[in-house]
Specification:
alpha+beta, Rossmann fold, 3 domains, 8-stranded mixed beta sheet, 7-stranded antiparallel beta sheet, 24% helix, binds S-adenosylmethionine
Length: 386
């Protein structure tokens, strides 16, 4: 992580410019300062905070931009502007190294705003080593295979194989599968594979399969499209059977110890141990209504920053949380609110800027998951004028 350690100095004057880097405003709190930086058409915050009597300068992690050379350029410009003595720096090398091409790795926002295809779509949840995902891609070159995974090393390993094997029809996304389907168009998917999901025997609420997941899958699946669970866990199998009780109107099928064309790493291990494997398939039969993604993240009430008194304890509701982490002062009436919001498993770190009583999310609105929308609704009420 690029950073700079400099001697103590007065706050830089804002707005000011140095080496084409614009320092727009400085928001301060007891803990640290955040400085809004505009550099090479990107905006982010630099954090400055005291460390052992000196000042540490680094990028605010949740607003980090790429390539990293932009961040290094801004940190170096800060060092120059502060006129402080530089005690340590790892920001010298600002060569514009081309970041490894990750054309098959997409951000969740791509699926919300840009993803369009006339091709058939398969989705694999938790693809792990990617053996089955790549097999599906190679067997179905005319289809798009979307792979969901939350374990970054597995994604990197799978993408290496994509390069080696010359696969061109995979889109991987580092995102919780339980939330992803909320953004898929109705009646657009042919198959959803959930192969060997983590059993979570002690925390069943963390399982991928749930009534909501099955409901969203059936909505996103075309008529005759299938949700296919493959598991070696007797508990998961029993749990899946119970879940199916709520979806009796949809045809389902259970097959024991079926061989597939490709075996995953896990499967090979279980088979050696003589374990049973169950395939549970549920089929969509109906055309569902079009998906309407609500994305109203506006703040309709004015914020009275002078009267605002936000509790910094996390607010935990049934299916979302809001945690106001820090309130920083920009000037007499403008503030910056640093917070975490959304679902427990994938909370998002955001900043809200309040200028002249008007609030807005820095670097754009959160992703419109149901948890983020619920969290926003609470935030709006808590900071809006009473
Ligand atoms: C037991 S491994 C199975 C991997 C692969 N399907 C196979 O058969 O070898 C489960 C995988 O699911 C991933 N995973 C767990 N929860 C997930 C979630 N909510 N969304 C996406 N992936 C998830 C894990 O990171 C892990 O790689």
């Amino acid at each position: 992580m690029p950073h700079l350690l400099v001697t103590k100095h007065n706050n830089i004057t804002t707005p000011s410019t140095c080496d084409d880097v614009v320092f727009s405003f400085l928001a301060s709190s007891q803990k640290e300062n955040k400085i809004l930086v505009k550099c090479d058409n990107q905006q982010f915050f630099l954090t400055t905070k005291e460390k052992d009597g000196n000042i540490l300068v680094k990028v605010d992690n949740s607003t980090r931009v790429s390539p990293v050379s932009i961040v290094k350029k801004a940190i170096n410009a800060y060092g120059k502007l502060s006129k402080a003595d530089i005690l340590f720096s790892n920001t010298d090398n600002i060569s514009r190294k081309v970041e490894p091409k990750k054309e098959f790795l997409k951000d969740i926002s791509y699926f919300i705003n840009d993803f369009k295809t006339t091709k058939e779509i398969f989705i694999e949840v938790g693809f792990g080593s990617g053996r089955h995902l790549i097999h599906q891609a190679l067997q179905n070159p005319d289809k798009i295979i979307i792979g969901l995974e939350i374990h970054t090393p597995s994604i990197e390993q799978m993408l290496k194989q994509v390069n080696i094997q010359g696969v061109i029809n995979i889109l991987a996304v580092n995102y919780d599968a339980r939330l992803f389907l909320e953004f898929m168009k109705s009646n657009s998917i042919s198959r959803v594979f959930v192969h060997f999901p983590v059993p979570w025997d002690k925390k069943p609420h963390r399982r991928v399969m749930s009534p909501e997941f099955i409901k969203e899958s059936l909505r996103a699946l075309k008529p005759n499209g299938t949700l296919e669970l493959r598991t070696d866990s007797p508990n998961y199998f029993e749990y899946a059977k119970e879940l199916l009780e709520n979806f009796k109107e949809f045809p389902s099928q259970i097959i024991k110890n079926q061989d597939l064309e490709v075996t995953s790493k896990y499967e090979t291990r279980w088979k050696k141990q003589g374990k049973d494997i169950w395939d549970v398939t549920i089929t969509s039969t109906i055309n569902d209504d079009e998906l309407v993604i609500e994305d109203d993240f506006t703040f309709d009430k004015k914020v009275d920053t002078l009267a605002l008194n936000l509790d910094k304890k996390p607010i935990v509701k049934d299916d979302f949380l809001v945690h106001f982490e820090n309130i920083l002062t920009i000037n007499e009436c403008d503030i910056l609110i640093q917070l975490t919001m959304g679902s427990f498993n994938k909370p998002v770190s955001k900043f809200i800027i309040v200028e002249n009583g008007k609030a807005s999310y820095f670097q754009g609105n959160p992703i419109p998951t149901s948890a983020n929308l619920k969290a926003h609704s609470l935030i709006k009420n808590l900071i809006g004028e009473k």
